Amino acid sequence: MAATQAKLSKTAGKPIHCRAAVARKAGEPLVIEEVIVAPPKSCEVRIKIICTSLCHSDVTFWKLKDFPGCFPRILGHEAFGIVESVGENVQDLKEGDSVIPIFLPDCTECIDCTSKKSNNCSKFQFKVSPWMLRDGTSRFTTVDGETLYHCLFVSSFAEYTVVDIANVTKIDSRVPPNRACLFSCGVSTGVGAALRTASVEQGSTVVIFGLGGIGLAVAEGARICGASRIIGVDINTDKFEIGKQFGVTDFVNSNSYEDKPISQVINEMTNGGADYCFECVGMGTLVQEAYACCRKGWGKTIVVGVDKPGAILTFKSFDILHMGKTIMGSLFGGLKPKSDIPLLVKRYLDKELELDKFVTHEVSFQDINKAFDLLVEGKSLRCVIWMDK
Fold this sequence. Notes:
This protein is an alpha/beta fold. It has eleven helices and 18 strands. Strands 3, 5, 6, 9, 10, 17 and 18 form a seven-stranded mixed beta sheet that branches. Strands 13-12-11-14-15-16 form a six-stranded parallel beta sheet, with helices on both faces. A five-stranded antiparallel beta sheet has the order 4-1-2-7-8, with no helix packed on it. Helix 7 packs parallel to helix 8. The N terminus is likely disordered. GO terms for molecular function: metal ion binding; oxidoreductase activity. Homodimer.
């Protein structure tokens, strides 16, 4: 470790030339380019990315032609890396630390960050910004001086990136890099939604709309909580066999029931509705279906999927009052990055949280576009991208 720190410290305070996968136009293949990464400013660290994984949110931003889509941009927000250097006023991180960047800020000081009731920092409220967290500028330029936009305060599709300390969580170095990166977003979001947001109870019935990476992470969390029945809803029948590995006990193909709403199917299967329903696709219509099939009196509907900007949900006032159901959002699974991620890491090290089954593919950095193809075609859950492999 000492030798590694000595090697890293030679670049401290200096711009670094490195490779990055740059998204130049919406939906077009990323371009591997030489970029310049500036030194970290106050309350920032520069991280050497060891590996990164592809989340569906990256695909969403990659396809967006209008804001919050913007180009040229360095995407990526699930990653593991080593702190290369630190800026001024950084106390809790040092060169050589194993870290994961996380899109959700955690200042640890504001009323929300110090409360057990919220993970939505009020000092640095989460927003989809193309800039650094504090000063609204970029740390990336091309060799010709062109400014490159950031993504979700992380931009991990580069060999080096600069991240605010509010978006960095130190992680146990015993976790392999190709597993540690999964804690940055998807797995934590899904598992957290079950453990923290919903507080799924042992013996309960859970319905999950959408068995992508997030939905399967919810299933993993529900399995850990001891749910007795986990019903997966998807249009891809292949997802049922995959879902079994994550604790899914029943599968419903929503395309097979054209004569009645899927909520009616679920209500009939569960004798009146499920205890917990999770919407993991990002469609307002599915949120309403999930709400319609969570049990009256105590059922909870948890919104995990991200719908398009401006999407509106509509519920009848009568149903809200008389049914006694709950609907709630789950940003990053309700987890506080700096305090809750170490707890998930412990579950992994104790072999309670199973991460291996989430990683279906691994590619080298120069093959990053293959990772996009695999995810878009529905062939992968998580594809890990190694910078030097």
